[in-house]
Amino acid sequence: MSVCFVLQVKVKPDREAEFLDRFDALRNRIAQGLDGHVVHQLCRSMDDPARWMIFSQWENADAAEQWERSPEHRELTMPLRACWDEAQRVRYDIGVVARRHDRDGVPS
């Protein structure tokens, strides 16, 4: 069963540029491919620009947990944590997926 993780963080004042630079290192590694990884997104709150959400989707919880336990994950995420005032992480099982289809009925 697919799973997703939502990490909501509040970036410390005057640390946004550093946060984005450090996230870029994580993004570059993810772009190389991770077993079981589907997508990663960084989203900024429209209501509070200091609040960010990191969303990741995985084919299964085992793949996600293997990545999270890896020394490489720790090396890439520990510098990010120095930029946060607060953080909250929630894990979800993905129950329903709805996608837009093209004219031929193929998901786009």
Overview of the molecule:
It is globular and about 50 Å long. It has one domain: Alpha-Beta Plaits. It is α+β, with helices and mostly antiparallel strands and 108 residues long. A 4-stranded antiparallel β-sheet has the order 2-3-1-4. The protein has helices spanning 16-31, 61-69, 71-81; strands at residues 3-11, 37-44, 51-58, 84-93. Strand 2 (37-44) and strand 3 (51-58) form a beta hairpin. The protein is built from 3 helices and 4 strands.
Which key terms come to mind for this protein?
four-stranded antiparallel sheet; alpha+beta; Alpha-Beta Plaits; 33% helix; 108 residues
Q: Cα-atom Rg, whole angstroms?
A: 15 Å
Strand numbers in spatial order across the main sheet: 2-3-1-4
Structural class computed from helices and strand pairing: alpha+beta
The oligomeric status of these chains comes to: single chain
Helical content band = 25-40%
Helix-strand pattern, N to C? EHEEHHE
What count of structural domains?
Answer: 1
Q: Whole-number average pLDDT?
A: 94
Distance between the termini: 22 Å
Low-confidence stretches: none
CATH class: Alpha Beta
**Shape verdict:** globular
The major sheet is characterized as: 4 strands, antiparallel
Question: What is the overall number of helices?
Answer: 3
In CATH, the architecture is 2-Layer Sandwich
What percentage of amino acids are in beta strands? 25-35%
- Report the count of strand segments: 4
CATH level 3 topology:
Alpha-Beta Plaits
